[in-house]
Design goal:
The structure is a single chain. The C terminus is likely disordered. By secondary structure, the protein is an all-alpha fold. Helix 1 runs antiparallel to helix 2, helix 4 runs antiparallel to helix 5 and helix 5 runs antiparallel to helix 6. The longest helix is centred in the N-terminal third of the chain and has 14 residues.
């Protein structure tokens, strides 16, 4: 007797991507992560499944996994500003604010979110 295929691994990559999105949108982050983990493993060169996997880990409080995935993303795509932001927030949630600060600053700079300086605000 054959063991049935795991539900999370059934279907084409496109069908599993859709299923993962439905789980994520329903705030079912653990099942979303299970589906996304197989997608990310099959296509590590694809950013979208890996970033959504990191988000699913973050929202399901699997912070070590989120951190590991985000660091891998940033190693491959160092200019991915959302990954910088999410890594900073993940580190903050782990009580590692000093490690989080540079990632949050980089994310803000990449997003063009610069604090206004006093010189710009004064009229001459």
């Amino acid at each position: 007797m054959n063991t049935p295929t795991n539900y999370y691994e059934q279907g084409t990559a496109a069908e599993r991507w859709t299923r993962a999105g439905l789980f994520f949108d329903a705030k079912e982050y653990v099942p979303a992560a299970r589906v996304l983990d197989t997608l990310a493993t099959e296509a590590p060169e694809q950013l979208a499944p890996r970033l959504l996997l990191a988000r699913a880990y973050y929202h399901s409080a699997q912070l070590s996994r989120a951190e590991r995935e985000l660091r891998a993303i940033l190693e491959r795509w160092p200019v991915e500003d959302y990954a910088q932001l999410l890594l900073g927030r993940t580190l903050e949630r782990q009580g590692r604010a000093a490690e989080a600060a540079p990632h949050l600053r980089i994310a803000a700079a990449m997003a063009g979110d610069f604090p206004e300086s006093e010189d710009r605000n004064t009229t001459r």
